[in-house]
Amino acid sequence: MSEKVLPLSPSLPRRVAGEGVRPPAASSPIANEVVRPERFDFGLASVRPERSEAESKGGAYAQDRLRHATASRSRRAESEGVSSRLLDGAYTGYYLPVLGLLLWELASRLALVPAHWLPAPSAVLATIAGLARGGELAGHVGTTLARVAVGFALGAAAGTALGALTGHDQRVHRLLDPTLQALRAIPSMAWAPLFLLWLGIHESSKTALIALGAFFPVYLNLASGIRAIDPKLVEVGRVFRLSGFALVRRVLLPATLPAYITGLRSGLGLAWMFVVAAEIMGASRGLGFLMVDGQTTSRPELIVSAILLFALFGKLTDAALERAGRRFLRWQRA
């Protein structure tokens, strides 16, 4: 087998596997030279310090970025925790009304709003306190609450009966629903003269107007809730041998209850709206009477006091109905 020299570099021959290497000539400058390892670094030794320095700088930069990211995440978590505690608390719904009252008071104190247009909240509260001390406030509030309660009960009962009937029977729905929808489009004040003519200026006309307002939301929500029941639920109930009242109690009533409670709340809200019209059209007591009295005597603080009392008691009654509805709908959260 022959031997040949394959130069790896200008000054160093290398043995190829399976082939011999011819020794350098005696006159060659590398014949007696000791081969040192650093001859094979190819300049890498001079690069290593620079690379290690860059690596150390990059590591320090990465650690600094990590510290900053961790600090920003912790600050963000703290801010989100504070905001969630503020927005998820039991008094979250009071923030906006309190802020509105403060801005209202500030605008009145700075004379940005004329007092004969919109009196300050302090003047309104003083008017309410004066009515309470004189004993007039309890009588007006009690009269309005009684009218709303009676009218809402009558309207909700009629809406429940007709809603269940039209929702259950398609033929009755086709017979009654178009007429009821047409009556629903009539404004509340359009009914007032007719009820005054039929029932006089006594409590019956006011109760009828309030009942009319509460009727339509209850009727619509209950009828639509019954028609939206999945037929498979009824089939499952019949598989378990439920029929008659047991089927209604165990299947139909739970399925329609959310829509029915929504209708009751909407009906209660309209009952409070219609009681204003009922008391304005002719009454000697009630919060609506206070509004008319404030208008005739040019006392805007009395009008605003009645409006705030309407809002307060309307919210309280709606909250009571909502709480009662949550008790009946506990199975939804189970």
What can you tell me about this protein's structure?
It is a single chain. With 334 residues, this protein is mainly α. It is 72% helix and 2% strand. The protein is built from 11 helices and 2 strands; from the N terminus they run ββααααααααααα. It has helices spanning 44-87, 95-109, 121-134, 136-168, 170-184, 188-199, 203-227, 231-239, 245-280, 287-296, 300-328; strands at residues 6-9, 12-14. A two-stranded antiparallel ribbon has the order 1-2. A hairpin with a 2-residue loop joins strand 1 and strand 2 (12-14). Helix 4 (136-168) packs antiparallel against helix 5 and helix 10 packs antiparallel against helix 11 (300-328). It starts with 5 loop residues before the first strand and ends in a 6-residue tail after the last helix.
Topology summary:
Layout: E1 6-9, E2 12-14, H1 44-87, H2 95-109, H3 121-134, H4 136-168, H5 170-184, H6 188-199, H7 203-227, H8 231-239, H9 245-280, H10 287-296, H11 300-328
Antiparallel strand pairs: 1-2
Question: Could you provide a short overview of the structure?
Answer:
The protein is mostly helical. The N terminus is likely disordered.
Protein traits:
334 residues; mainly alpha; two-stranded antiparallel sheet; flat
